[in-house]
């Protein structure tokens, strides 16, 4: 009788172990059958463009209902009406490329000054630093077209700013879209910095 009970105990124990193993195994890792601490495994803190709905099926878990989310599959909402892109701080100039260089020559006031973004002295100070990093190697520290590359005969035909008909708008246009042998510097300088450099170039021209 003792052996019979012993064997029954072993069988029951093996069944428990087997069921535990089967229960813990799950092929779909995105939807595990058992999670030890679901509130930590599935955080309710949303990440941009993530699915706002948890994959963990638990009756006790609260069901998140956010009908405003785009197709209910992303936690990133569309920007509100009137939002301006960080790469387009001055929407009045967003079509300057289509209007062309001649149009940009009519822009004689720096929008940073018009919009009270910075004082002119600050713009020139910051523009000088940016100019020395990105522009002086070709155009020269004084804007005379005698940068180090020109002096070493690596490039030719760099003009003196004083000899050119320039406005802050035309300078911005060329920095943004390039002209002749000069490529666009839009990837090196953001929109605000391009206006700063443009103001500093005008400072050198009128110096």
Automatic annotation (TrEMBL):
<keyword id="KW-0349">Heme</keyword>
<dbReference type="GO" id="GO:0046872">
    <property type="term" value="F:metal ion binding"/>
</dbReference>
<feature type="domain" description="Cytochrome c">
    <location>
        <begin position="122"/>
        <end position="205"/>
    </location>
</feature>
<keyword id="KW-0408">Iron</keyword>
<dbReference type="GO" id="GO:0009055">
    <property type="term" value="F:electron transfer activity"/>
</dbReference>
<keyword id="KW-0472">Membrane</keyword>
<dbReference type="InterPro" id="IPR036909">
    <property type="entry name" value="Cyt_c-like_dom_sf"/>
</dbReference>
<feature type="transmembrane region" description="Helical">
    <location>
        <begin position="6"/>
        <end position="27"/>
    </location>
</feature>
<protein>
    <recommendedName>
        <fullName>Cytochrome c domain-containing protein</fullName>
    </recommendedName>
</protein>
<keyword id="KW-1133">Transmembrane helix</keyword>
<dbReference type="InterPro" id="IPR009056">
    <property type="entry name" value="Cyt_c-like_dom"/>
</dbReference>
<dbReference type="GO" id="GO:0020037">
    <property type="term" value="F:heme binding"/>
</dbReference>
<dbReference type="Pfam" id="PF13442">
    <property type="entry name" value="Cytochrome_CBB3"/>
</dbReference>
<keyword id="KW-0812">Transmembrane</keyword>
<keyword id="KW-0479">Metal-binding</keyword>
